Amino acid sequence: MASDKDYYEVLGVSKTATLDEIKKSYRKLALEYHPDRNKTKEGEAKFKEVTKAFEVLSNEEKRKSYDQFGHAAFEQGGAGGQGPFGGAGGPFGGQQGPFTYNYSGSGDFGGGVDPFEIFEQFFGGGFGGRQRKPAYSLTISFDDAVHGTEKQVTIDGKSQKIKIPAGVDRGSRIRFSEYEVVIDVVPDKHFSREGNDIVTEKEISFPFAALGGEISVETIDGAVKIRIPSGTQPDSMIRLSGKGVPNVRGSGRGDHYVKLKIVVPKKLSRKQKELFEQLQKEEEHGKKWF
């Protein structure tokens, strides 16, 4: 059964603690309760507790969800079905096809915080007494990261083909053969990624925002048409369900959010100026047009 203790209390930090403060507290507690140094059952339970708390609070998205929903955000059936991070599983687990991932939940640990780096400080390069495999960096495109790909690489003079599953992100680690491959992703100039969600901006004209209509937007799977309601306000967000990044574990996808930027013309033609002046006069006479 999962602990119901407040994660901030478990790590001994305040709810406004910075990531550095969270990491510092975790290092201290993990060193104290790690099974290699604390052989008691209580120590083992405490180590799992502080590790789970660190996994959540060191990840920006998970921390926001925890602050809003508490433990229910990570429980089956909690926070509206499964919660934003439902079914996260235990720490240091996860598998996708032939690859074994170091991290739990969404495939990363703490939004870039590597627990193995922390334990290397304690145990001289091996987590829990186990020697880590040699690590190599592999840079792939944004498109390859979200759709998956195969790469021919040469390691120690030996040519090998590595299959990269869809949904990996920058910092994802894949254990391949006797190696560990660390993924780096080249940013895309059109798409921004937040977890498994995609965010893009789309400019629309002032009249179009007022009147509404249909526009075409690019997604990671190609162009789709969406309808803009009349009276759309600046920075409105339209959600395209299931149009985001595939879950690296192979189940479900994120969403695509289109942020609408309303462009106000810097220069007006004579006719346009007359029309806007007419609208302004109507508003001055109590005829609201917003």
Notable traits:
290 residues, 29% helix, three-stranded mixed β-sheet, alpha+beta
Molecular structure report:
The chain is an alpha+beta fold and 290 residues long. Among the domains are: 1-93 and 105-123, DnaJ domain (Helix Hairpins), CATH 1.10.287; 196-267, HSP40/DNAj peptide-binding domain (Sandwich), CATH 2.60.260. The chain has helices at 7-11, 19-33, 41-57, 60-69, 115-123, 142-147, 206-211, 270-284; strands at residues 95-96, 99-100, 126-127, 130-131, 135-140, 149-155, 158-164, 173-176, 179-185, 192-194, 197-205, 213-219, 222-228, 237-240, 256-263. It has a 4-stranded mixed sheet. A 3-stranded mixed sheet has the order 5-9-8. A hairpin with a 2-residue loop joins strand 3 and strand 4. The longest helix has 17 residues, at 41-57. The termini are far apart.
Give the SSE map.
Blueprint: H1 7-11, H2 19-33, H3 41-57, H4 60-69, E1 95-96, E2 99-100, H5 115-123, E3 126-127, E4 130-131, E5 135-140, H6 142-147, E6 149-155, E7 158-164, E8 173-176, E9 179-185, E10 192-194, E11 197-205, H7 206-211, E12 213-219, E13 222-228, E14 237-240, E15 256-263, H8 270-284
Parallel strand pairs: 5-9, 11-15
Antiparallel strand pairs: 1-2, 3-4, 6-7, 8-9, 10-11, 12-13, 14-15
Helix pairs in contact: 2-3
Question: In summary, what is this structure?
Answer:
The protein has 290 residues and is of the alpha+beta class. Helices cover 29% and strands 27% of the residues. The strands form six sheets. Strands 10-11-15-14 form a four-stranded mixed β-sheet. Strands 5-9-8 form a three-stranded mixed β-sheet.
